[in-house]
């Protein structure tokens, strides 16, 4: 069972992604957001900015898991830095390229999560949570590509 704090805070972490999609679907919401808090929080911009932050955050989570393991520690540390490096090198070049890079990054991150789980470095509930959150993130990024 996923611990409630992890589940609820993880789901709360989807809110900026949902907000980005909401501003793409609703011109009125986009206009209010633009006027009240600025263009960085509208449409693909919020999806890209927040997606980059979360992909890098997940690198840190994997680093923490790597620190728990004795066997194959180099592999765990090496893998853990890849999401942040991916974001640094490939998120850019316009909204479409950035959204594709993030979408790809989150799918590959899920595979990495599975590997860390197979190494016994994650909690037993980790993959259930990651599947839920990754599905939400990937859906929002895909909608950002379609609607943007």
UniProtKB/TrEMBL annotation:
The keyword S-adenosyl-L-methionine does not apply. It holds the Pfam family DUF3429. The keyword Membrane applies. This is DUF3429 domain-containing protein. Keywords: Membrane, Transmembrane, Transmembrane helix. It comes from Rhabdonatronobacter sediminivivens. InterPro entries: DUF3429 (IPR021836). The chain crosses the membrane at residues 46-67, 74-92, 129-147.
């Amino acid at each position: 069972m996923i611990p409630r704090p992890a589940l609820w805070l993880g789901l709360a972490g989807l809110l900026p992604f949902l907000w980005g999609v909401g501003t793409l679907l609703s011109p009125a919401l986009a206009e209010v957001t633009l006027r009240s808090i600025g263009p960085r929080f509208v449409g693909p911009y919020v999806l890209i900015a927040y997606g980059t932050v979360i992909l890098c955050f997940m690198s840190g989570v994997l680093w923490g898991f790597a620190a728990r393991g004795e066997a194959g520690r180099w592999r765990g540390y090496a893998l853990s830095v890849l999401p942040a490096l991916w974001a640094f090198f490939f998120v850019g070049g316009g909204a479409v390229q950035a959204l594709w890079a993030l979408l790809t990054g989150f799918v590959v991150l899920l595979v990495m999560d599975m590997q860390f789980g197979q190494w016994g470095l994650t909690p037993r509930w980790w993959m259930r949570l990651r599947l839920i959150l990754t599905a939400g993130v990937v859906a929002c990024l895909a909608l950002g590509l379609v609607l943007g």
